[in-house]
Amino acid sequence: MAQKYMQTIFRVVYGSAYIIAYLILLGLVLITPTDAIERSIRNNQRYNVIILIACYGITIFIVLFSFAVRLYVNKTVLASIPKSWVPVDKGDVSKAVYELIAAGLDRSATVAYEAKPRVHKGAGENVVRKLKLGSEEKEVELPPKHTPWGEIEHRGWASPNSPDLPNLQYSTVLAELPNLIEARALTLAPPDPTSAADPPALDPEAVGLLQRAPHLTLRDYISHLAELRVLGLDATAASFLQHYEQARFSTRPVTMAQFRELMHLFAEVLRSMQPLDLSALDDEFSTIPPSESDIDNNGGNMTAPTISRKSSSSNSFAQTRHPYALSSQASSGSLRSTLSAGSVIRLATTDDRIDSPYVIHLSGQG
Hints:
With about 375 residues, the chain is mainly alpha-helical. It has helices spanning about 1-40, 45-80, 95-115, 170-175, 175-185, 205-210, 220-225, 235-250, 255-270, 280-285, 290-295, 310; strands at about 125-135, 135-140, 345, 360.
């Protein structure tokens, strides 16, 4: 409470001191003209009175006008903060500050230009411009006006502007290719002759042969299909394996061109696959001499056929790891025609009415 009283007393004393100082100043200012006017009147020199009044009047007007202008300018400047424009022109700042700002803007323009993709060839001649970057000068080739830029691409992803594969991450498709090849192979299994279902179920022995074992790589599985004469080891299959392994296991993601080339080879591999002929395999096994297919009782060497139907006959397609949509010609109670959760690619069916043997399903698209 006492502190509040002390502040009030200090404010009164402080204000009174200024008022007293103003009164003393006003008295000192008026003493001289008052004395001059009094002597002029006494000496009958009235023109001096007119001159003094005019001079003092003009002086007071100039002072009041300057004070009013100063108050107006200060109020206007404070009201314009923050500014709707950046004061960086020559008239806004000093010459040294302007040169510093211009050098920074030129440097930013250079970085922005270098970060853009290159222009197409034949779009026009570039314009060489010298930019001053502080104490250095750098020549930058600026493209002509209305120049088309090159296509922007991020490795591993399709462009958002892609007409057929917008925002597709290639790795999600690459991880499914072995499963699609297996699913395609299973559709080529012959029907079970003992099945009474309509349509008949697939031959369990054929399904067991066409399944991919968990430990098999895609290269080994394609070799396995080649031994079954379902797929030929031609130049297309070799090129597909090379492109697939490079795209799947490389530390550098693939580009759009590489991905499309890989998928073209993948489609050719799917088209080249042939139905499994169990009778031809039986004939091949029957031609193997007994000395090469049986185990010698004395512990001799064994030369067994590469493929054993009996060892895999207990398997069935119901045990496959990834269900995929299969062609309508291979419909069976054990074949599921739904796309597995999280997959973006499936085998095409007759209902799709497309030439490609596969369909890429993007989220947000029907």
